[in-house]
Amino acid sequence: MALSDIKPERGDKTRQKVDAALYLKQDFLGDPLGENRPRWDAVQIPIEFKNSQSQDPFEDKQAEDTPAAEAVKRQDIQGQLISYASQVFQRQHRTFV
Q1: Which SS3 state, helix, strand or coil, does residue 35 take?
Q2: What is the DSSP letter of 66?
Q3: Could you tell me which of 49, 43, 50 has the C-alpha nearest to residue 21?
Q4: Residue 81 pLDDT grade (very low, low, confident, very high; cuts 50, 70, 90)
């Protein structure tokens, strides 16, 4: 696992930065400049950290006391995860992430 939350990959016009990612050992070349950039061409599993259960993008239940704004935030996070998958698909020949 490598952190990649500081800067986007060089040349990435979307400027996406996933918090961390899992790489195959042979694909991970390290981070010689210490820039914590993602390598979308080699990512096996992108990882996004959130600090609250209310930001869980896979939680469909909405309690009566849960504001609708939290549901919107979860949808935004789902979109964020979809955009990471799109980055991987654009650079790798895959059928799923």
Answers
A1: coil
A2: S
A3: 43
A4: very high
Give this prediction's pTM. Answer: 0.74
Identify the CA nearest to 47 among candidates 79, 15, 73, 85. 85
d(CA 89, CA 64): 38
Burial of 69 (0-12, 13-18, 19+ CB in 10 A): exposed
Contact (CB, 8 A) for 72 and 79: no
Q: Would you place residue 45 in the very low, low, confident or very high pLDDT band (cuts 50, 70, 90)?
A: very high
Radius of gyration for the chain, computed over Cα atoms and rounded to the nearest angstrom: 15
Q: Which of 39, 31, 30, 32 is nearest to 8 (CA)?
A: 39
